[in-house]
Model the fold of this input.
Amino acid sequence: MPLGQAEVKCRGDDVTVVATACALHKALQAAAVLADEISLEVIDPRTLVPLDVSTIAASVRKTGRLLVVHEAPARGGFGAEIVRQVLEQAFDYLDAAPKVLGGSATPIPFSGPLEDAVVPQAVDIVAAARRIMRAV
Done:
């Protein structure tokens, strides 16, 4: 796997979802749930530095929408940096404001049910994708 080369895990036409680590698996679950309703293009950036902005921006040019999902808190998280870089290359192609879906601003708890409550789940990604589609 070359550094700085993202992988499109699921092709779609409606919303670009950039997801990392465990959020990637949840984004793929969300894509399956929404398959008959909203077509998600799920991208695994694989590395954040260097970040393959060109693959992400090309997807945003196609879909017109961007949702970045990660487990870190949204405020001050790397999702904002991904959005910033994509805006520099694909701003004119956006049909809705880009969104970052991150974890709560709390330490990730050790308990499984509590962890599920503070980090984005597939159901949260489904809801965010539906909201971004209605934003037009």
